[in-house]
Design goal:
Blueprint (H helix, E strand, L loop, with lengths): L1 H21 L7 E6 L1 H4 L10 H17 L3 E5 L8 E4 H7 L3 E2 L10 H9 L3 E4 L8 E5 L12 E4 L5 E2 L2 E8 L15
Parallel strand pairs: 1-2, 1-6
Antiparallel strand pairs: 2-3, 3-5, 4-5, 6-9, 7-9, 8-9
Length: about 190
Amino acid sequence: MSGIISQIEEDTKVVIKEILDNANLKEGSLFIVGCSSSETIGEHLGTASSKEAAEAIYKVVSGELSSRGVNLAVQCCEHLNRAVVIESDVAIKYGFEEVNVIPQPHAGGAFAVEAYKKFKAPIVVENVKAMADGGMDIGGVMIGMHIHNVVVPLRLENRHIGKAFVLAARRRPKYVGGERAVYKDM
């Protein structure tokens, strides 16, 4: 198992750096991560939660986001209706309402458990009101509902973490004005 965990950690380093280098996130932005640790080790979604894979991914992602001043939000699995683990001060900043639940490996997922354990003051909110500025979906966990109304997919060269497929996206403002309008490059 240590071989796949090492690969997961290395893949995560490459993928998160590529995403952040291309997502145009500003300091203070909100970045949502949904992660199936089962998929990263080659199992089906929700069938084989891996504490080790979740720890490896969390360490890399949280470190990279923190170094850039970007706030991490972690989506729970469908058993918690894709609620989000977030730092309480970030929830207050955005006006998110806390719900009463503590993620578990098979009700929230290993990655949400890891975030809840490692955050300074973790809480769970029902959703982030489509206010995330970007995100990463590891293993097909469907994070789109947490990102702004206009989402731009990031075409990644590095599309796997372990055995899981990765999708990434960022937000952009809506285009308005029609054919005479001039737009900023975003």
